Amino acid sequence: MKLELLPEIKSPRDLDKFTPAQLEQLAAEIREALCSVVEDRAAHFASNLGVVELCIALHLVFDFSKDRLIWDTGHQIYPHKLVTGRYSEFKTIRTRGGIMGYPNPAESDYDLFMTGHAGSSVSTVAGLKAGDDLLGQDDRRAVAVIGDGALPSGIVWEAMSNAVGLKQDLLVVLNDNRMGICPRVGGLAEYLDKARLAPFYNGLKRDVSWLLNKLPVVGESVEHALGNVKEAVKGILHGGMLFEELGFRYVGPVDGHDITALRRQLELVKDVKGPVMLHVLTEKGHGFEPACEDPVRFHTPAPFRRNEDNEIVPVTKSKSPAYTNLVSDAIYRLMKRDHRVCVLTAAMCAGNDLGKVRSDFPDRFFDTGITEGHAVAFAAGMAKTGMRPIVDIYSTFLQRSYDQIFQEVALQNLPVIFTLDRAGLCGPDGPTHHGVFDNTYMRSFPNITVMAPGDEADVAPMLDFALTNNGPVSIRYPKTGAQKVERPAAPVELGRSEVYSWGTDGMLVAFGSLFTDCVAATEKLQKDGLDIGVINARFAKPLDTETILRAVRECPFVVTIEESTIVGGFGSAVLEAASDAGLNTGHIKRLGIPDQFVEHGNRGDLLESLGLTAVGLIRLCRELAETNAAAVPAGAVAD
């Protein structure tokens, strides 16, 4: 398809000149632009296809150069970027130096927050509205677009309750496509399924209820009849009952792919006083049949092209098994041999490769929806009964359950196993998704054992060990293919590292999968005449002080390597241990994620920019060796 209208859009106001037919054409052109992106990179796809008409209608009715708009979660931001003048940059999306795959205020004034976690949109919009009103700018309208998958998040209901209490004039657009990444689950999902079947309702239910309650009651039979009438009205108007009772004026459901209908309803509600819920029905993957048929696969599909018959042709890339798959396989084996093992995830069944677990062990698989705090507390309850729950959640999302990790798990010293997928740099997803903080917050809690596999060979033994441990265990691993270092098997024992090699010129101490880069670096350095050793730390807590502090005492330099924040991370644990032992720490060098938010881009490129590759380690070791003669003697006791 030739793009005629889309390249001409420099701002949303350019939409005003289009006829209804041209707006439909524009929607088709936006979908064509979305298809072009996934030809050479992984990108959020089905979710963006589903909000094209909604995005157009919102920008036709509101002026978001002044009004406020927050897209919850943010991965469905692509159409918004296209209609806010970023078409010329669109081909760079999710590449280093290009535009972000999530909202980014640095790119455009139309992006207010860098949103990447679900559920916060209503809170931030309520805050924006409160601030604008206090500053005398109460003519600014406030809109939050939130998906049905995010609706169960506790913060959503906290925000809606607060907005009702404040009597705020704000609009919540509920984008209901029956999906998160996977199909939605839970009681709210069932409620919304019923709401889908209800007739359109314009938010007057409270007035109907008031009228019914004012009707006179004459005798028991009349009272009984009125009761039946009330129940009948409730049944007819079921769709918005929950939101109406909370205090929102409910409107919908509305066809989310009918621009004219959307525009009409948005015009009707934009000036309504008090909080309003507009229920919009959309189809994830709309306009692209394969994505409609399999929205889970096409949420973030591997790159593909379309042939002349518009059929899917994958862009194949050979790669080693991903850590995600290795962990899933190991979990499956644990569940087969131990009936106590169960798995909890927070709407990430597909992302964590748990489909086979769900199908073969349905009674021991729990998808709680996007409710990470609840999932962790739920797991604590199960652990208290004698079960051995595994909480399988991305590192960046597990942050949302910080308090439950502290109070319900660590404080109780319960045997909950945390498997932290996407720990480290998540490449093109960027700073909202980089899982770089878990080392710091996990190791701060008493009772928790903190681990990371150095390579493929460590994965299954670590999970086996975790099952035998009587307290909480955290195991982190990155979003990448797993490599394997050939060496004799070393059993996983509490607080014991693995010495791959011992060096007289220096030591690299790796916590996590960068162990393989350390091995590659030392092999090259050995050929250059530098005897550099490698320790696969395995544990950040408890730390193997016997082995690591020996390296600090004996070696001219020690470099700690981790794919996590330097502040409070594994390297800090080594420094703390050395200081507590009274050792000089001047020859300890820490490598990791600096105290800044790392941009999006290819994971390999980002690691290279931070010196966290074999090439960077080789360069650093050479520099340290050259300057070592002038350094404080290794192992000297501090004054």
What would you report as the Rg, rounded to the nearest angstrom? 28 Å
Overall average pLDDT: 88
- C-alpha end-to-end distance: 74 Å
Q: Uncertain spans, ≥5 residues at pLDDT below 50?
A: 204-220, 229-236
* Total of domains: 4
Sheet/helix structural class: alpha/beta
**Largest sheet features:** 7 strands, mixed
Helix tally equals 24
Short key terms for the protein model shown above:
alpha/beta, Rossmann fold, 15% strand, globular, 24 helices, 4 domains
Describe the structure.
The chain is of the alpha/beta class. It has 4 domains: 6-201 and 239-293, 3-Layer(aba) Sandwich (Rossmann fold); 203-236, no CATH class; 323-476, Thiamin diphosphate (ThDP)-binding fold, Pyr/PP domains (Rossmann fold, 3-Layer(aba) Sandwich); 498-630, Rossmann fold, CATH 3.40.50.920. The chain is 39% helix and 15% strand. The protein has 24 helices and 19 strands. The strands form 4 sheets. It has a 7-stranded mixed beta sheet with strand order 9-8-10-11-13-12-17, sandwiched between helices. Strands 1-2-3-5-4 form a 5-stranded parallel beta sheet, with helices on both faces. Strands 14-16-15-18-19 form a 5-stranded mixed beta sheet, with helices on both faces. It is globular and about 75 Å long.
Gist?
The protein is an alpha/beta fold and 639 residues long.
